[in-house]
Each structure stands twice: as C-alpha cells, then as structure tokens.
Amino acid sequence: MKLFDHNHQYDKEPFKVYKTDFNIGFIKLGNNVWTGANVIILKDVTIGDNVIIGAGCVIHKDVPSNSIIINKQEQIIKSL
C-alpha cells in the first residue's frame, strides 16, 4: 500500500512544477481496513471501518464503512 498525502504545486501559464512546494491533505483510515497488493490512497480521503480494498485500486475519494472496493478490469483475449 502507498499513501500520498500531497501533490506538487504547479502553475499553468507558463507551465511549471515546483519541486519543493506541495498541496498537503489528510488520509484517515478506519478500524479493520484490509488492502490488497499495490493499493494507492491519495490525499483528502477517509476510509471507514470494516473495508476491503482489492489489489491495484487507486482510492481518490471517501470510502464508506462496511464496503468492498474492487478494481474492475476487463481482460480481453483475442485470437491471432
């Protein structure tokens, strides 16, 4: 699991990313939260109690208690 509580600040015109200036937020994890492999949780997110987050999910908004989050990806197999 990776937790990112910040983003780099930037200007649009002219475009410039500041290496040392950040927008900082909070991440709140409830009790009994289980995360699969390679889960990323971004800033300003609250995850409730009793939550399962499936492998590979990117969490960018709040997750209510007693939830299961899955990363639905379709695997398409075609013959050559």
Key features of this structure:
UDP N-Acetylglucosamine Acyltransferase, domain 1; three-stranded parallel β-sheet; 80 residues
SS content category? mainly beta
Helical fraction: under 10%
Main beta-sheet strand count, sense and barrel state:
3 strands, parallel
Helix and strand element order: EEEEEEEEEE
CATH architecture of the domain at 1-8 and 29-70: 3 Solenoid
Number of strands: 10
Low-confidence stretches: none
Strand order of the largest sheet: 1-6-9
Q: What is the CATH homologous superfamily assignment of the domain at 1-8 and 29-70?
A: Hexapeptide repeat proteins
Give the SSE map.
Blueprint: E1 2-3, E2 6-11, E3 16-24, E4 27-29, E5 33-35, E6 40-41, E7 45-47, E8 51-53, E9 58-59, E10 68-69
Structure explained in plain terms:
- The chain is an all-beta fold.
- It has strands spanning 2-3, 6-11, 16-24, 27-29, 33-35, 40-41, 45-47, 51-53, 58-59, 68-69.
- It has a domain at 1-8 and 29-70: Hexapeptide repeat proteins (UDP N-Acetylglucosamine Acyltransferase, domain 1).
- A hairpin with a 4-residue loop joins β2 (6-11) and β3.
- The chain is flat, with a radius of gyration of 16 Å.
- The model has no long low-confidence stretch (mean pLDDT 91).
Summarize the structure.
This protein is an all-beta fold. Helices cover 0% and strands 44% of the residues. It contains no helices and 10 strands.
